[in-house]
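Journal club prep — side note

Before the paper discussion, L.F. wants everyone to see what a predicted structure for a comparable chain looks like in token form. Sequence:
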Amino acid sequence: MTTVQSPPAPPTAIRPRVVARAGLYAVLAANAAAVTYFFADAGFGASNALLVLGRLAGLYGALLMAFQLLLVARLPWLDRRIGMDRLTSWHRWTGFGILWTLLAHAVFIVFGYADSSGLDPVNQLVDLAETVEGVLRAVAALVIIIVVGAVSGRSARRRLAYETWHFIHLYTYLAVVLAFTHQVAVGTTFTASSAATAYWYTLWAVALGAVFTGRLVLPLWRNLRHRLVVSAVVPESDDVVSVYITGRDLDRLPARAGQFFLWRFLTKDRWWQANPFSLSAAPDGRTLRLTAKAAGAGSAGLRHLRPGTRVFAEGPYGAFTALHRTRAESVLIAGGVGVTPIRALLEELHGHAVVVYRVAAERDAVLYDELRELALAKGAELHLVTGPVHPDKLAPAELARLVPDIAERDVFLCGPPPMMRAVLGSLRELNVPGPQIHFERFALAG
């Protein structure tokens, strides 16, 4: 397969992920400072310290909600540099930050007013909801956020289907709208000055605009432009299939080897399902290819797709690309069907590469013939490692034997989570620097 590639950029000491992460932290810190300034500029105007703390907590909660929207917007610039899995992790912890700041806001405000009025906290809350505009909406927003937080816990998340969890999460957008209208109605800081009002309107407009652009406008525009369709379905083994997809102007689709899309195949029984599958070949400007193992109803159904089926794809997503290289030479470690982005990366990467492919038995080595041909054409070393899980065939001593200079190379890793955890431990024991280790997990937020 011939790939369309620009000349390779030399590895650089300037890490895109560090730049993007520092930029996000700087944006959050600058806005936290702005929120604090506008709060102080408006004057405390409260009869006790509980009300002051409650109002400040509410403002920080609103800021975190806006930041949360930016994290889930799937903006290409951020996603290519940080990766959806890491953005999703930040999204999760930011969500818990929102939960606790808004709970603190509610508790401090209710107890603060109760201290002044002499009412008990429950009756004080009822009184505020009945007499103050926007408070009832704030209570509804907080209830939604508590429910979303409860189903986001690890134990609850494991018990829910992704579609159910995602549907519940969509109510977070309703909570954002309710919280914003509450802030407009009763937020003294919001209306304290024209500058404060302009700041908050701008903040929410940018956050909501990012979501609208990244989650709706950009996917719709790309799919209207490229008009993707299935061109061929090729079984690779009894439980693995490759799907070839064509469309218009694919040379203008900014996809790179190692990235993935959320694929929707527009048939009667599949149009509502979005499944993340990596590209298993470097984009060549004419065809996209995904290769998947039957691990559930979504992936198993790929075998029955027919050529001509329309496709709606969101992406490309992921930071598992050559953009993050720091060394001229590399090691590519794949486990099972995790070979798909590794095979695509091998096609794109320049410089000497060593490929280590771990499977239980040789018959499980999907795309092995292609890997062997690519390795031969590019002068890469290819090691097929087979056998049971124990003993660990990718323990530190084994990796050092296969790749003696592994600490001097970039390492790209993709495979089942237990294997990835074991290999990451081996790499740490071999003193491979963290910036040289590249991996990504499929993780969908919001």
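L.F.'s comment for the group: DSSP finds 15 helices and eleven strands in the chain. Keep this in mind when we get to the figures.
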